[in-house]
TrEMBL record:
Its cofactor is Mg(2+). Keywords: Amino-acid biosynthesis, Aromatic amino acid biosynthesis, ATP-binding, Cytoplasm, Kinase, Magnesium, Metal-binding, Nucleotide-binding, Transferase. It comes from Enterococcus saccharolyticus subsp. saccharolyticus ATCC 43076. This is Shikimate kinase. Its main location: cytoplasm. Binds 1 Mg(2+) ion per subunit. One of its GO terms (cellular component) is cytosol. Signal peptide: none annotated. It is found in: Cytoplasm. GO terms for molecular function: ATP binding; magnesium ion binding; shikimate kinase activity. HAMAP family: Shikimate_kinase. GO terms for biological process: amino acid biosynthetic process; aromatic amino acid family biosynthetic process; chorismate biosynthetic process.
Amino acid sequence: MNQIVLIGFMGAGKTTVGNLLAEKMGCPQYDFDQLIVDKIGMSIAEYFDQYGDAAFRDIETAVLAEVDTLKGVLSTGGGIVLKDKNRTLLKKMPYVVYLKADLSELIQRVTHDEENVRPLADSKTPAEIEAIYRPRVPLYEESARIIIETTGKTPEEIVTEILKQV
Ligand code: S3P
């Protein structure tokens, strides 16, 4: 396999696992949030503030279309599955891996991540985060060919499981 795409909710470990996976495979990692920040020249939080969610989703879609044929590990943002167009593209890609974690673990991670400011999760209650999470689960499930349960596992264990399945 020459390309693996990681999808999943905020805090699922797409960037951390993607880094390690790329290292093990000896290939580049493309982190969507970073590609978007490079494109927009400001932080994602600032962009959401100034231009809103819809404009951000258009940029995310443009980035996916730009990198969909690249070789390497693609770590997407948690909202990549929201647009039909993106899901259609993901379904055509051979190794789309959904990193699935328990909601309580995701909430714990996104509410304690000081390095990564997430406009959709920042200062939200657990119930508000759950309201974002629930409708997305079927979208991740329909977009992925491989589902990895990650709760309680280390990034190394998750990478080993992914490599067994691709
Ligand atoms: C988002 C997830 C974030 C980032 C943006 C929106 C989302 O990426 O793209 O804040 O809608 O779930 P991570 O999943 O890498 O945190």
